[in-house]
Every structure is written in C-alpha cells, then in structure tokens.
Design brief:
mainly alpha
C-alpha cells in the first residue's frame, strides 16, 4: 500500500491533488484495517511505513541529484544502495515527468489500422469492377 501511494504521489501531476489525497487516505485506512484485523503489531506497521517511505525517498533523492555521477559519491552510493548503480547507470540527467492520456496511442493505432482497412477495401472494390 505504501509503495503504491508513494508512486502515485511522485509520478502524478501536481494538478491531480484529488488522486494524491485519495491515495494517502487509502494508505492510512489500509494500515488501520491491518491493525484492526490484528494481522500485525502496531510497531510492525509503523516500522514498515517508515522503512518503505525512507527507502523510496532516499532512492529518488539519489536519482535526482547530479552528485551521484562523481566517483567518490558512486562508491558511497554502492555501499548504501547496491542496486542503484545498476538501475541508474545509463541516466545522464534528471528525467522529467511527461504526462499523456493513456488512450492517445491506442486511438492513433486504431485510426491508422482503420485507414489501412479502408484503403484495402477500396482497392478490392476497384479490382472487382475491372
């Protein structure tokens, strides 16, 4: 729940405050219901939230800082977060979020296929007439 919440808040547009607020609410309600169902101890849930949020924040701070490109900083990063160098090895600068409606590429693909279909249908009609 917490990782999903953090991803939603990090990668959605700042204009979508409703989705971010909903995500935080669902995260807290999920933690509450885990505690209410006696699935975990309270300290387990608090520690899990803390570790998850700090790891997420630490990774994104490292990814967004240009200092991790320096040799001494890379060695320090390797000791604290070994997979970071692997995940970010081909990234030269900060990658900015770009938002696009998810159905735009689908609409373009369908319209392209439809134009091909119409063109082929017209060619068949012309061949039948001749």
């Amino acid at each position: 729940l917490t990782v999903l919440n953090l991803f939603v808040c990090e990668y959605t547009s700042s204009k979508l405050k409703f989705i971010q607020t909903l995500s935080w609410s669902l995260n807290f309600f999920g933690a509450f219901f885990i505690l209410a169902a006696h699935e975990h101890y309270t300290i387990d849930v608090i520690v899990a939230f803390y570790i998850t949020s700090r790891t997420f924040a630490y990774y994104h701070v490292l990814a967004n800082s240009l200092a991790h490109k320096q040799r001494s900083s890379q060695e320090l990063t390797w000791s604290w977060f070994p997979l970071f160098s692997y995940f970010e090895e081909n990234v030269d600068s900060i990658i900015h979020n770009e938002y696009e409606w998810p159905w735009t590429p689908i609409i373009e693909l369908v319209s392209r296929k439809y134009r091909i279909f119409v063109r082929l249908r017209e060619e068949r009609r012309k061949n039948k007439i001749k």
